[in-house]
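Q: Two folds, back to back.
A: First:
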Amino acid sequence: MKKKILSLIIATMLVASMLTACGNKNTDTTDSASKETTVVGSDGDGESAPEHVTGDAPASGDASESTNTPTTFEEKVVAASEHAIETFGSDGIPELDMEFTTEALNSYIEGEPSNRQAIANCFLNATMNDTTFVYNPKNYSSTLEMIEDAQANYKFGDNIFRSQDNRDEQIANAIDALVESLGTHVVVMVIDAYDSHPVMFYCDNGIGYGIHTANDEHIEFDTGSYASEGYDPSNNPHCYNVYTDGTVETQF
């Protein structure tokens, strides 16, 4: 009888031991899985989590590479201001009451439509496209030289005037004849001006002139959409024909 009782006690102890061993094994597995999740999914242990690369992530090393290319709008305006000062000098364009500080350019861009806004936008667009859209006649010996330089720099088409016809010399002579007859002179030439015409010649009288039509007989110039402050476009002509012999005819 005693032997049976002893055998029963020993059997009970063995079962209890086996159950305890199984419980420890499950606990170890759970802890191991928990640690693995922590390493992969968080940096709670003070170490950096593994890098997860997706299709949108920059290539390795890109983040450490730095360039001087402006990225924010503010940086682009600063670069446009620097470009403007290089082209015209720190005095800006006094004839148009236009300054080239960052604050001034930003005020033109965000202000009411004007020829100053058109010029400022072209400086900004030139910065964004790494090209030249604004030209200073004082940097050239003639209007023709300025136009030819603009043609050589233009990378968005075959012709700055959006025409397949090569009329650079005729156009240069015509603009010279026009401004002489009006008693004014060109202070800035703008390409892709977002004004009335693709190329605008802004003069010291506060008006911009652009080419409407051109043929072998004459070139028609129209005034731009905007003018300087103080100029009354309602009491001034808007359209001129300039003939190849230099004759300027007011249309209306």
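A: Second:
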Amino acid sequence: MKQRMSFKAPIVLFFLLAINTLQANAQTESVIDSNNDSYITMNIFSPISVQNMSRWSVGYIQGINEKWKAGIDFGYGNETVSPFNFGHIDNKNYQLWEVRPELYYILDPARKTKKYFSAELFYINHSSIFRDGEYYTESDGKMAYDKLDYKREKYGFNLKYGFIIPFGKKLGMNVFTGAGLRIREVRFSNIVNPRIEDEEPDDDYFGANKHTTREGVAFGANFSLGCKLYFGL
């Protein structure tokens, strides 16, 4: 269950640095769209993620007034509709859904490119069937198995900083980064041929696989990087 390092971080950081450079000398421009407009969004990274399970993620954003917007994203993936699991070729029969409500505060509504801060809540529900692997229980240590059912629930919040960049009156891009806290609960069931394994040095040095190999509840930091296309209604 090895995973590769995500390529999303350098791409999004490049976008953020480029936009900040352009904004340094930008003048206040007339607003292209009304802040009360509504938008449909689509996350362009989530279907091809190599760090997380790939999924399709779409959302809706509604302007409240010139400073505030509210939105919600829904994500869903499984082996059939999300075939681009480059980092999870051994993770079959998976199903994942998520929901992410978010509140946006626009820093300068008069600018064409709008900088914002936002607060996002999230909940993720992920189930899979794993075969011929190993995991760590809460009490018995390291176990090997022939097959098991895997269930993960993750929830928490992120504080984010981003840019809403219009390409025209109805089309644009939302680039963001952020961090927060998360709670993750992992459970294994219907285990076929469980057996105790000798403890070995943990090769999961960066903790990339802990969400698929460690049973129990874990608290930790959560990081957010992404890019969405938006379409005005």
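Q: And?
A: The first strand starts at residue 38 and ends at 43.
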